[in-house]
Amino acid sequence: MWKQSLAILCGLLALSSLPAAAQSDPELAKSLGGDEMGMKKYVLVILRSGPKKMPAGAERTEMFKGHFANMQRLSDEKKLALAGPLDGVDGWRGLFVMATADIAEAKQLVATDPVIVNGEMVAEYHAFYSSAGLMAVGEIHKKISKK
User: Fold this and answer.
1) How confident is the model at residue 25 (pLDDT cuts 50, 70, 90)?
2) How far is CA 97 from CA 48, 52, 91, 125, 147, in A?
3) Single pTM value for the model
4) N or C end: fewer C-beta atoms under 10 angstroms in the chain?
């Protein structure tokens, strides 16, 4: 059994050591905005606790409904590649990976979010270079999410 496992592992290692060009799909890379390395420039947005924590209640619930609707809209428009919550330690609440290399544009897009508008959260902006494959996350998520 260990020999079969070793053979499988060696096969996987051999595949992973192939030059990227031998495995690449240039049309897919282009459709996702990837460069010759399959990478893309983004803006990483860190959402931190803001100065105006809204108390629990209907208004807070509506604000967060708007937050999720805004993220969905930006994702559908291919402006938001990835988003997710953080654990809240040290006030770090979440992140966005904006599908733009322009920090000014990212700021305009993030300014539409109700948690930013209401001061519940504030945003930090950082240039970020990562896989163009992040642009496919939204479509893949739709296929695996039950809601």
Assistant:
1) confident
2) 15, 24, 18, 10, 22
3) 0.81
4) C
